[in-house]
Design goal:
By secondary structure, the chain is α+β, with helices and mostly antiparallel strands. Helices cover 35% and strands 20% of the residues.
Length: 479
């Protein structure tokens, strides 16, 4: 009996048992540590937003705006008990936790019809599920349909492509705090495409703009014009219109123009742009680098610059900016020193501008202009300002297809347009407040990146696991 007990004691002194005991103790320590960590996490409830489009976080611009709110703001949610939209409530709670001056009250519209009538001034009715944002100077109603972005399918149905809750609420806060709505005018009389015809008028007005039309041959530019929009003109400006636009810009006006290769016939519009060092190069951009081709060589997936207008779009996981049959924009050699021209979008160096549209060749010809080509620019004049001095601003985009694509599911095209409009208004707090996209964009890789990642995941990582396992096996083989 004593010999058996002695043998058991001696067995605990062997190398195998010692290493096995150490491994068991380490395993128990790791398990206990994980249990304690799980308990701590459960008590503290930390949250990290790891979604690519930051669905559960407020943007920097919204945070800056909330830090300036010092007076009471009331949110009224028109929901029956238990019918709250979780996506909307999650965002509203972020506002409430950030600023104690913001209060939320849920109102049952069926039980409080008198309350709803106070805000239904036009007696059109307020949809159940709407959110009313009321500040000191004004209020704004956000309908449940404005909380989301939709795209129409070819079968006639629609699907949700993005969550626009933060975008709508922050815009409503800006309006409720100031009561001011900038007025933008669409220039008419040249067979332009009206924004209303594209279904974009509501989009512009929801961003706290008032959209009106203006025929420059019949009227002067109104004093309340915060910007002029010239979208896809098919006929040239008259000389009298050119004079009015130039006078407007000289006094610090703002101008947004989208045009395609029919610009060859619009010499007077080019005269306006030439006053600020710009020129549209007649032709169609052909892209030869597959990395920049959206659909075919005449559709461009451009590089976006680090400008205020395009920077948020370059970092956003959403549909890309796509331009069909774009036209190039060049900077003239002779321009004022006070003018600053910043490219917004560029093609690859392999692209070329086909200047003779009768040519059908798919390869570059001697008459073509080599890339990289600028497809959109932002202009300021003067580039520096002091105090309340006026500063003319222009955004020129060489693709009138930008907006038709925007209403076909290319959200980044719409965002580029709205960012341009808000930049013209000196409203940086609204520039990056685009919808939180639900679109999963495929990874965009160049040939070199494909080779690198392929080698990494097919060879380097598997071999590192194999070598590590082999070395551990060799060490334990001699235990």
């Amino acid at each position: 009996m004593m010999k058996g007990i002695k043998d058991i004691r001696e067995s605990f002194k062997t190398r195998q048992v010692k290493y096995g005991g150490y491994a068991t103790l380490i395993t128990l320590a790791v398990i206990i540590g994980l249990i304690l960590l799980n308990l701590m996490v459960g008590l503290l409830s930390p949250q990290v937003d790891m979604t690519s489009s930051r669905l559960f976080s407020l943007s920097e611009q919204t945070v800056q705006l909330l830090d300036t709110i010092k007076t009471p703001v009331n949110f009224y949610g028109l929901w029956q008990p238990g019918e709250e939209d979780n996506n909307v409530m999650n965002v509203i709670n972020l506002y409430l936790s950030r600023n104690k001056n913001i209060n939320l009250e849920l109102i049952d519209p069926d039980r409080n019809p008198g309350f709803v009538l106070r805000y239904d001034r036009e007696r059109r009715g307020i949809a159940r599920g709407s959110l009313i944002v009321e500040g000191e100077k004004a209020f704004r109603i956000i309908s449940p349909y404005e909380m989301y972005d939709f795209t129409q399918s070819q079968s006639g149905g629609s699907s949700v492509t993005g969550i626009a809750v933060e975008r709508r609420i922050t815009s409503a806060l800006l309006f409720a705090g100031t009561g001011y709505t900038p007025v933008v005018y669409e220039i008419t009389g040249h067979s332009e495409i009206p924004l209303a015809a594209l279904g974009l008028q509501d989009t512009v007005e929801r961003e706290n703009f008032s959209l009106k039309q203006l025929n420059l041959l019949l009227a002067a530019i109104p004093s309340d014009a915060s910007a002029l929009i010239f979208n896809s003109p098919q006929r040239d400006l008259a000389a009298a219109e050119v004079e009015k636009i130039l006078d407007y810009l000289e006094s610090g006006g703002r101008f947004l123009v989208l045009a395609d290769y029919t610009i060859q016939e619009l010499a007077n519009l080019n005269e306006v742009l030439a006053s600020y060092g710009l020129a549209f190069e007649y032709g169609i951009v052909h892209e030869t680098d597959p990395y920049y081709v959206a659909i075919d060589p005449r559709t461009e997936w451009p590089d976006l610059s680090d400008h205020e207008i395009t920077k948020p779009l370059a970092n956003k996981n959403s549909t890309p900016v796509v331009l069909i049959e774009p036209m190039a924009i060049t900077t003239l050699e002779t321009k004022r020193r006070s003018v600053e021209i910043v490219p917004l979008m560029t093609s690859s160096a392999s692209a070329f501008l086909r200047t003779n549209l009768d040519e059908t060749s798919t390869t570059k010809l001697p008459s073509d202009i080599s890339g990289p080509l600028v497809l959109g620019v932002a202009v300021t004049d003067p580039s520096w300002i002091q105090g309340n001095e006026s500063q003319a601003r222009i955004v020129a985009i060489g693709a009138s297809t930008l907006l038709p694509l925007a209403v076909r599911g290319f959200d980044a095209n719409r965002d580029l347009f709205m960012n341009s409009l808000t930049w013209l208004q000196d409203r940086p707090e609204n520039i990056t407040l685009r919808s939180k996209s639900l679109f999963l964009l495929p990874m965009r890789l160049s040939l070199v990146q494909i080779v690198i990642f392929g080698a990494l995941f097919i060879f380097v990582i598997p071999m590192s696991f194999f070598v590590t396992g082999f070395v551990i096996w060799l060490k334990r083989r001699h235990l």
